[in-house]
Amino acid sequence: MAKLFPANKIRPDQAGFIRRGLAFTVDGVIIAILSMLVYSGYVGLKARIRHEPSPLSQTIQAVSKGGNISISTKTGIKADQDKKTALLDLLKGRLPDEEYQKAAAMTEEEIVNKYPKEIAAASVEKAKKELEARQPERDDAYNIIKEYIITLLYFVLFFRYGGRTPGKRLFGLKVISLGDEGRLGWYQCFERAHGYFCSGLFASLGFWQVLWDREGLSMHDRIATTTVIRLPEKPKERKSKAMKKVKEEAKEKVKQEEKEESESPQKAADETDP
Questions:
Q1: Which of 258, 204, 232, 266 is CA-nearest to residue 28?
Q2: CB 231 within 8 A of CB 168
């Protein structure tokens, strides 16, 4: 166990693996949400340029017709139409208005049985159009935006201004330079942010390196010459913890006294009983 958890860390206040991992997980969730929002905006802007309905308007329309909402970091917020609405959309324009109104009053099974040829032809035509206009689900622009630029900017800006991402702030951690322990420079921030990509290779060995590194450093720590420390608790936090401890001790003492009082009559009765 000594090899997995090195005792000779660079600093006594150096953060451990679990706390660092939890902080990074929080940051990962935030980045995923940002990526989803940026991608939704990117698709909406592309639809506006092409004079097409935006994904948001399509979602609202589909939900109003009984569709189900699904959320994904790849496609953003999306609503799936129910089967009957999808069938009616296929038949729209292929049937006379009077016939279409009759179809709208039918059940899903009745529509399929009565208009199989129209549905098949419309499905083929729709598939051809989607194939011509469709881009890959994760196109190159989205890959660059999500996996590189957003992640890079997120870490670089937070490291530069305060050395604390939201995840690290939540768990009371801070990134410092091993050289002068001052604020990280721009180049050092870029090095550490790029170091995350290196640490993520080969089953994220660079992150796990903290467990066996003789100085408790990860791969990105060594790349950027940085480390992560635990910040001391604020006076208010220490005071609140102390007050909480005092209250708990007082409650425990009261419970103990009540227990002794309840047991004392029984003891007295046992002693007087011949």
A1: 204
A2: no
